[in-house]
Amino acid sequence: MPRHIAIIMDGNGRWAKERSKARSKGHEEGAKNVRTITESAIKAGVKYLTLYAFSTENWARPKSEVEFLMKLLERYLDKEAETYRKNGIRFEVIGDMSRFSDSLVKKIESIRAETAKNKKLTQVLAINYGAKDEIVRAVKKMQSLSLEPNEQNLSISLDTAFMPDVDMLIRTGGDMRLSNFMLWQSAYAELFFTKTLWPDFGEEELFLMIEEFKTRERRFGRV
Ligand code: IPE
Ligand code: IPE
Ligand code: MG
Fold first, then answer.
1. Nearest partner of 138 among 159, 167, 164, 107, judged by Cα
2. CA–CA separation, 88 vs 91, rounded Å?
3. Whole-number Å distance between alpha carbons of 16 and 69
4. Does ligand 2 come within 6 angstroms of the Cβ of 201?
5. For ligand 1, atom 5, which residue shows the shortest CA distance?
6. Mind listing the pLDDT tens digit for each residue in 42-101?
7. Do 147 and 117 contact (CB within 8 A), yes or no?
8. What is the rounded distance in angstroms from the CA atom of residue 54 to the CA atom of residue 180?
9. Catalytic one among 12, 33, 58, 133?
10. Does any ligand 2 atom lie closer than 6 A to the CB of residue 196?
C-alpha cells in the first residue's frame, strides 16, 4: 500500500473550456473533487495525501484568476473545517505562507491547530508551493541553525519534514511534467499520468492506480 500519495491536480481550465464555461467554474468543480478524493484515500488506507493547489509560478496568471483562486481557497477552508472534524482528518500545508493575507494565514493556522491530533489521514495542501523555492528556504534554515549540510538535515528543514517521502505521484490533465512539485520528496516515487481532467478524476481511477502501484517493483537502486 502507498502511505503517501501526491497529486498534481491539473486540468480545471480545460474542463471548463470543454463545456464553454469560465475557467473559474472549472476551479470550483476541482475544489469539490478534493473532498471526494480525500474520502477515497481514507477508504484505501492512505495516510498522507498531498494536493498541489497553487504553485509559486501560478501568480503569473491573470490577476482576476489569481484573486478568484484565493477566494476559493478561503471558501474551501471555511467549508471543509467541518469535514476534517467529522472524518478525523489532520490538515497541513506546505509552501511559503508569507505571501498570503493575514486572514488566510490565520484561518490556516487555526484549522491546523484544531486538527493536529486527528489520525485517519493527513491532507496536505501545497499552496504558493514550488519545490525550488522550498529547497532554497530549507538551505537558509539549515544555515541559520548551523546544521551540517547533508540529506538528513535538508529533509528535516523542508516544509515536508513531518511526513514520509512520496510513494505515488499522480498528475491529471494529460501533461507529463512535474511543474516544480516535490522534486526532492519524489526521488523514488512511482509516477502516474492520466489524461483525465482533475474535476473528472474519481475514486475508480484512483483505486486502479493503487492496484497498479502494488504490482510495481520498487528497487531503490538495488537489484
Ligand atoms: C489546475 O488547473 C489548477 C491550478 C493550477 C490552480 P489549471 O487551471 O492549470 O487547468 P488547465 O491546465 O488550464 O486546464
Ligand atoms: C501545476 O499546474 C500546478 C498545479 C496543479 C497547482 P500548471 O497548470 O500550473 O502547470 P504547467 O504550467 O502546465 O506546467
Ligand atoms: Mg494547468
1. 159
2. 10
3. 15
4. no
5. 54
6. 999 999 999 999 999 999 999 999 999 999 999 999 999 999 999 999 999 999 999 999
7. no
8. 11
9. 58
10. no
Q: Tell me whether strands 89-94 and 168-171 are parallel, antiparallel or unpaired.
A: unpaired
Sequence ranges of the domains in the chain: 4-215
Centre of ligand 3 from the C-alpha of residue 119, in Å: 32
Express each pLDDT in 177-192 by its tens digit.
999 999 999 999 999 9
Distance, in Å, from the CA atom of 26 to the CA atom of 42, rounded to the nearest integer, reads: 25
**Beta-sheet strands, E only, within 86-173:** 89-94, 121-129, 168-171
Q: Among residues 10, 12, 33, 128, which one is catalytic? A: 10
Ligand sitting nearest the alpha carbon of 65: 1
Query: pTM for the complete prediction?
Result: 0.98
CATH 3.40.1180.10 fits 4-215, yes or no: yes
